[in-house]
Amino acid sequence: MENFEVVVVGGGLGGLACGVMLSKEGMKVCVLEQHSQIGGCLQSFYRRGKILDTGMHYVGSLHPGQILHQYFKYFGVIDRLRLQQLDPEAYDILVFPDGSRYCYANGEERFAARLVEYFPEEKAGIEKYCGLLRKVGSLISPEVLRSGHISNGGLEYMNVSAFDVINSCTQNETLRNVLAGTVSLHSGDRERTSFYEHGMIMYSYMESAYRFKDGSQHVADALAEEIRKYGGEVRVNAEVKGIEIRNSVARSIRINEDETVSAKYVISDIHPAKMLDLLEGEKVIRPAYGTHIRSLPNSYGCFTTHVLMKPGKARYANSNYYFHNRRDVWSARGEYKGCNLPVVLLSMQPPRTGDYADAVSLLSPMFRQVLEEWADTEIGKRGERYEAMKKRYAEAMVDCVSRVFPDMETQIETVYTSTPLTYRDYTSTLHGSAYGIIKDCRNALLSRIPVRMKIENLYFTGQNMNVHGCLGVCASAAVTCSALLGEEYLVKKIGNA
Ligand SMILES: Cc1cc2nc3c(=O)[nH]c(=O)nc-3n(C[C@H](O)[C@H](O)[C@H](O)COP(=O)(O)OP(=O)(O)OC[C@H]3O[C@@H](n4cnc5c(N)ncnc54)[C@H](O)[C@@H]3O)c2cc1C
């Protein structure tokens, strides 16, 4: 039986980031990924020679000196990232049902100034909101890392809802909806989403916003290259089927049908409920704890329409568009042409050459209830009604974005679609949830997964632990690795990279 110092279950961003940090520190690491391709939500795929992304459409804080840049610099991959900076004057454009449009600009001053142009009477409220974003964003700045901490606290922002904080900044209903204009695609929920989560995501994009060129898969591949450079292994087609527990320690990890490895430490980058299902042998975890983890609600999934464009027809748009079908951006319901589409995000794949886009992604939240009748089916075997439902949603989405892109329908070469069930079957996220366990500000501590539970050498990482997304998952990986290496030791290295 091969023996590693660390085995990481799951080769998504969280697992790969842990793999890089620990192998750089000289540990013998093995990352196990069930699929033939690493990356989890970073995976890209090809259709008709065009590259399409699954779960990473844009990221923030990637300018030198900003927090995500610092993480990727420490990981040793920053120079290999192929990046397209979004329009700094309008990285996000919100489009409301009455046709009104609002742009978010990069940099706190420009962000505020643009909003003040739309709402001149609301300068004080806009500045208050930006100041609060700054406070949350600066909780995890590179300076904080250099001081030896991953985060400077922030519990007071985890315990209040983004909805209430935004409303406390202004009485103006339109401005309230503009400030919260992207929440509905970032798992925003009126009652549960904390200002911490909202602020972390908003501040990061406000600092700078980038798309990955040539597909986000290259980020996962670069991280895997680093792991291998330091002597670690990244294995695909290696599904973990069981973990044997003895004397409160994870002793051996069963892979596929016939292989077993052992490790001093095991890190789980998969959903905690799925990890509990893998535990075998001694019953260390109390049934009540298992019931609690399994009962935590998960975010909705996403319906994605990948639109391949005819060559040279659709001019590349260097901004994201959020098309709202309800004025109230917090609403989870938004009937559009017989489909529930409260909001549709349009994000174009940066062209490899020239000014025309090859591919456009349209995304909308999709709830489990819509898919109940196909819950027990597999990819490719869900039947005609499922295909018809997907076609209906794809057509409604294209129609919805024609408010700004009236020629899109005639520029389409073909479309591919995926539902939360596709994500469930590819990345094993629970029910195809896009962002994992919902962190509930009404009970911030109970809805957060601690880095360790009762099994001494088993650690958690990934989007279920803290804020989801590229930045949240990198920060969680640092928390996980700090538990093995010591926080001050590790994060000073990250901060000073
Ligand atoms: C549609 C969509 C759009 C998104 N857009 C953005 C965006 O624009 N910007 C952003 O920052 N974030 C975005 N996100 C969120 C972001 O992609 C995730 O938060 C992040 O990638 C999660 O990483 P992870 O490592 O926690 O999990 P995952 O990416 O889910 O990785 C888990 C891995 O574990 C593997 N696995 C599961 N079970 C086993 C097993 N038994 N054995 C071995 N391997 C196993 C899976 O195959 C998977 O590769 C988006 C997510 C979705 C779904």
Describe this entry's structure for a reader.
This protein is α/β, with parallel strands linked by helices. The chain folds into 3 domains: 2-45 and 59-82 and 215-297 and 437-495, 3-Layer(bba) Sandwich (FAD/NAD(P)-binding domain), CATH 3.50.50.60; 108-207, no CATH class; 300-434, no CATH class. 34% of the residues lie in helices and 22% in strands. It is built from 17 helices and 22 strands. The chain has helices at 13-24, 67-75, 108-118, 123-137, 142-146, 155-158, 162-169, 173-179, 195-207, 217-229, 272-278, 287-295, 384-401, 408-411, 420-427, 469-485, 487-495, and strands at residues 2-9, 29-32, 44-47, 50-53, 59-60, 83-85, 92-95, 101-104, 209-212, 233-235, 240-246, 249-255, 259-268, 279-281, 301-309, 320-324, 335-336, 339-340, 343-348, 359-366, 412-418, 458-460. Strands 1, 2, 10, 11, 12, 13, 14 and 22 form an 8-stranded mixed beta sheet that branches. A hairpin with a 2-residue loop joins strand 11 (240-246) and strand 12. Helix 4 packs antiparallel against helix 7 (162-169). The longest helix is centred in the C-terminal third of the chain and has 18 residues, at 384-401. It is globular. The model has no long low-confidence stretch (mean pLDDT 96).
